[in-house]
Amino acid sequence: MNEIVKPGAGVLFMKIGTHAQEELADIIARKKEEISKTGYGMWGYGGNTCHPASMVQPFARKFAQIGQPIHLCMETMNSSHIAAPMCAAEYSVDGVQWEEIPHTIEVRGSKYALVIDQLREEQLKLPLDQTRVPVGPSTGRLGSRYVKGRVDKACLSVLDAPELTNEGDPREIDIDLVATLREPYAVFLRGER
User: Domain extents for the chain?
Assistant: First the structure.
């Protein structure tokens, strides 16, 4: 355990790599610059396992109410995401009210974005056998049973101890990059600029 992945913590796990034809190192440098210039950045993503309104926002608010941050813990992987590198023009917290994305922020080739700050490279272990899904249709499912196959992101609560299973060796994921989510935590994206 460490100060980020500890019992009672909330963690949003995500696999990352090349995205919208941009290398990961370039994405990280651009996001750090966005945070420096704007005070926050937007980390784009897709898929419904971390839907902004039904998953990420309620998950993050639950931890904010008790004064705990949500850390985005990212595992690097080989990726060849070939979506067009178009930048979104607007964001929305609820999918109804839309605002312009600041020109100091670029979110490319994504349907949604996490709102982040304090992006840093950090090596740590995420023990999936010691996590549970706390929100959505898979509530209560052990993290090691949820994050597999095509599931590459998840909202997770860290348990006091690993759950014993008959599935062989415990699953630990090597985390390479960490950010802190900030309100409004996750947003919808639309348009092009």
Answer: 10-190
